[in-house]
């Protein structure tokens, strides 16, 4: 789902877009200020690469945990692993007390390989394979069941000696989602638990698109009531999962507002336009949004009073400010729009490493040009090293601080959440960009390794 930031206008008062400067973490500033590190990594990689800083993942985990503690609520964090494949993120979860939400055998085994224990896994996704259900039950993972057939298959594959731990996924009222069960289906599922000793009902979950804290709080309240009803039937229902959808704040409020007020086709290469964009400014992101949910309608008190644990499944929000993506400029042209010049760059990678194109949209935080040197602000669009006109990393004419030159690096900030590898492909037999992991070293230096090494 994409919430629109903009209404398209066409008055060409300037072909250069307004700036969308990203919030930068201290680690990112250290990376950019180092006179050699980026260039050394780029030389070693020989192509585009992603940078991960798992210490920031650990900080995000601590912030979510602190929100639970302030509300006096028992809470569990499951990292939505689909948001990034990096091994270092699953390792950070294992080291800092977060579980992992997985939806495939590959994700499950990758999490186990990084030290996440089976009981710290939540297995989601619709119509899971028999092999995934069996493996999840063997590892004592919490399994979010999406339909009655899946529940029957799970009951058949699990053992009464070690019952499978189950959440029933509820379809929100008036929702067009393909995920979850209706009220009647939930009632039928409760009857299955009464007849099968190989499954144990531990609670309920839901999937909800968008980033509305109030809607999540209201649905959480409904699931609390479902837990209390299930208990009257003899089920130990003590967990409510509200999924993910915690916003991330990429750019300042004033930048997002200026973009929305002024954007038009005249800002984009070839007059490109998009219907909507991710909301790149978010006033209460991540843990602050969790606090809003817990504060709404006595949710925290109801959880405490009834001994119910709240589970969350953040993906993007757990990766906020934990990574960036680096391309090398390998070509530059001058083009004109409305009689005014702009630069059209070609970099050594593809837009598949900025997966916002998956949503027929564009990643808006401004790329950073390295090395930083004085110069004349230059409207610049960025294309990929493929034979497709549509393969653009930045259709928007970004106001770079100087004309980019061949050999310069373009750093797209805050790309760890979904952007890096959701759409990765070796199209044209180009290598998939590797992930580089930064580690803090003495004297405020970084050491780096390849992910998984």
From TrEMBL:
Record InterPro entries: Ala_racemase/Decarboxylase_C (IPR009006), De-COase2_N (IPR022644), Orn/DAP/Arg_de-COase (IPR000183), PLP-binding_barrel (IPR029066)
Keyword Lyase applies: no
Region: Disordered, residue numbers: 1-20
Cofactors named for this entry: pyridoxal 5'-phosphate
UniProt xrefs under SUPFAM superfamilies: Alanine racemase C-terminal domain-like (SSF50621), PLP-binding barrel (SSF51419)
Keywords: Pyridoxal phosphate
The Orn/DAP/Arg decarboxylase 2 N-terminal domain, residue ranges: 57-261
Protein name: Alanine racemase
Gene source species: Nocardia amamiensis
